[in-house]
């Protein structure tokens, strides 16, 4: 029986890794997800087989039923525009589960005092590490969800200069509680309130770490929290001597860490600077330049936009969160099809942090059946803007801001952006002149070769499409 369980675990791990490889490209992402899901099903079956005490099977089956009931409906019915919130929520549930497992292990072993098998130190350390990181991940993900769902402001929420000292104090308190519990494990255990104090301090730390982080950094935050959840799961697996949790947690932790590093580089910001918070959401006066000069943006019409694009050789569409909010991806696909029928080459420029999570724009465009070959990453498309007749920006603010290249006083200076301003003509679709999620004004909107088409992105694109049909 043990050999069968090990064989099943090995098969599950292979499918995890193979499925993860599929996520490296949009063409294989769906298949990769399904392969990894099959691997997880095999790991669950192997774990059930390994359980000797069948008295717990009723609770286990009940847990599976509840998990399926809570997991499947949101995954099936959540709109693609709300996918970042769903990712944050699911990630938080994972971290919270790990924290509860650590708490249950504490109660089951009476404060780890009756853990006598050798070596027992991995049970104590693994459980305490999982409790701290899992709690941080759960409560941090709750704040990320609330900001993405706009239940909380996307702007940084902090206590000013006391923010970092307070975070360090909370971390020190959680570690101190863990040390007390660890020392008590070699004696007669410690009262349960020490474990509760650890979980509470770590939970408040999770809240306080994510609250000061602005909306512009949210894709990196989601990735970082995902990595933390994986590491906490691996630690819990170490405590429970569960191979599946160890391997799956390490895979999630490692891949999440790599993705977090890549996302941070895409924004030219260090991970410590992101965790320190404060970037994104600050107010900016629309039309105000660094010298205080007030600028005016030029408005255009759907008819003018259609004429410009219809007679262009190449059009580059730059999608942003505004496209997601308006659910305009299908309308954009229809407009692009009309342009291509007229001989216009249409490409899509994808910035690594456009939207609210990694790959957000790719997911939306893929849902509208946009060709994967037409989606170009920033490094591949930036050189083409200077040869492009029209760049159509749909609800993207911060990732098209030329101040990141030109203004050393800008908060986003040094952040790689799409070279939209180098196109011969730029058309920006926005509801208003309000700044983006980072709260920073965009000089592109006031450039001589830029015109603004105001309104809901889906309706604006639909109006342009009707004008194209009439040409």
From TrEMBL:
<dbReference type="Pfam" id="PF02233">
    <property type="entry name" value="PNTB"/>
</dbReference>
<keyword id="KW-0997">Cell inner membrane</keyword>
<dbReference type="InterPro" id="IPR012136">
    <property type="entry name" value="NADH_DH_b"/>
</dbReference>
<comment type="function">
    <text>The transhydrogenation between NADH and NADP is coupled to respiration and ATP hydrolysis and functions as a proton pump across the membrane.</text>
</comment>
<feature type="transmembrane region" description="Helical">
    <location>
        <begin position="57"/>
        <end position="74"/>
    </location>
</feature>
<feature type="transmembrane region" description="Helical">
    <location>
        <begin position="86"/>
        <end position="104"/>
    </location>
</feature>
<protein>
    <recommendedName>
        <fullName>NAD(P) transhydrogenase subunit beta</fullName>
        <ecNumber>7.1.1.1</ecNumber>
    </recommendedName>
</protein>
<feature type="transmembrane region" description="Helical">
    <location>
        <begin position="32"/>
        <end position="51"/>
    </location>
</feature>
<feature type="transmembrane region" description="Helical">
    <location>
        <begin position="192"/>
        <end position="213"/>
    </location>
</feature>
<dbReference type="InterPro" id="IPR029035">
    <property type="entry name" value="DHS-like_NAD/FAD-binding_dom"/>
</dbReference>
<feature type="domain" description="NADP transhydrogenase beta-like">
    <location>
        <begin position="6"/>
        <end position="466"/>
    </location>
</feature>
<keyword id="KW-1003">Cell membrane</keyword>
<feature type="transmembrane region" description="Helical">
    <location>
        <begin position="166"/>
        <end position="186"/>
    </location>
</feature>
<keyword id="KW-0521">NADP</keyword>
<keyword id="KW-1278">Translocase</keyword>
<feature type="transmembrane region" description="Helical">
    <location>
        <begin position="246"/>
        <end position="264"/>
    </location>
</feature>
<comment type="similarity">
    <text>Belongs to the PNT beta subunit family.</text>
</comment>
<feature type="transmembrane region" description="Helical">
    <location>
        <begin position="6"/>
        <end position="25"/>
    </location>
</feature>
<keyword id="KW-1133">Transmembrane helix</keyword>
<feature type="transmembrane region" description="Helical">
    <location>
        <begin position="220"/>
        <end position="240"/>
    </location>
</feature>
<keyword id="KW-0472">Membrane</keyword>
<keyword id="KW-0812">Transmembrane</keyword>
<keyword id="KW-0520">NAD</keyword>
<dbReference type="InterPro" id="IPR034300">
    <property type="entry name" value="PNTB-like"/>
</dbReference>
<feature type="transmembrane region" description="Helical">
    <location>
        <begin position="124"/>
        <end position="146"/>
    </location>
</feature>
């Amino acid at each position: 029986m043990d050999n069968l369980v090990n064989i099943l675990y090995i098969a599950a791990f292979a499918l995890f890794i193979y499925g993860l490889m599929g996520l490296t490209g949009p063409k294989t992402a769906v298949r990769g997800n399904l392969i990894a899901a099959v691997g997880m099903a095999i790991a669950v079956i192997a774990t059930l087989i390994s359980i000797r005490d069948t008295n717990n099977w009723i609770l286990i089956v009940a847990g599976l039923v509840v998990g399926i009931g809570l997991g499947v409906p949101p995954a099936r019915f959540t709109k693609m525009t709300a996918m970042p919130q769903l990712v944050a929520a699911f990630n938080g549930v994972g971290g919270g589960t790990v924290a509860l497992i650590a708490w249950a292990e504490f109660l089951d072993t009476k404060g780890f005092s009756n853990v006598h098998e050798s070596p027992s130190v991995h049970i104590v350390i693994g459980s305490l590490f999982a409790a701290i990181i899992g709690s941080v991940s759960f409560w941090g993900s709750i704040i990320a969800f609330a900001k993405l769902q706009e239940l909380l402001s996307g702007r940084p929420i902090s206590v000013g200069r006391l923010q970092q000292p307070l975070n360090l104090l909370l971390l020190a308190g959680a570690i101190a509680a863990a040390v007390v519990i660890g020392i008590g494990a070699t004696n007669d255990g410690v009262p349960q309130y020490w474990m509760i104090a650890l979980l509470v301090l770590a939970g408040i730390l999770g809240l306080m770490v994510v609250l000061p982080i602005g909306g512009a950094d949210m894709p990196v935050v989601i990735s970082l929290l995902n990595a933390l959840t994986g590491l906490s799961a691996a630690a819990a697996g170490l405590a429970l001597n569960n191979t599946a949790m160890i391997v799956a947690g390490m895979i999630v932790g490692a891949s999440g860490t790599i993705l977090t590093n890549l996302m941070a580089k895409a924004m030219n910001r260090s991970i410590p600077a992101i965790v320190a918070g404060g970037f994104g959401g600050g107010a900016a006066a629309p039309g105000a330049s660094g010298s205080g000069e007030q600028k005016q943006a030029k408005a255009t019409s759907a008819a003018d936009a259609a004429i410009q694009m219809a007679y262009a050789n190449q059009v580059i569409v730059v999608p942003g969160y505004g496209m997601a909010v308006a659910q305009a991806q299908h309308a954009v696909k229809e407009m692009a099809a009309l342009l291509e029928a007229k001989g216009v080459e249409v490409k899509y420029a994808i910035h690594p942090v456009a939207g609210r999570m990694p790959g957000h724009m790719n997911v939306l465009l893929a849902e509208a059946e946009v060709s994967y070959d037409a989606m170009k990453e920033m490094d591949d498309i930036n050189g083409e803007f200077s040869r492009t007749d029209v760049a159509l920006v749909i609800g993207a603010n911060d990732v098209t801001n030329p101040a990141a290249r030109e203004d050393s006083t800008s908060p986003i200076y040094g952040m790689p952006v799409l070279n939209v301003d180098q196109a011969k003509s730029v058309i920006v679709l926005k509801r208003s002149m309000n700044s983006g999620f980072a709260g920073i004004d965009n000089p592109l909107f006031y450039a001589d070769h830029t015109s603004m088409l105001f309104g809901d992105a889906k309706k604006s694109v639909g109006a342009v499409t009707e004008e194209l049909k009439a040409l």
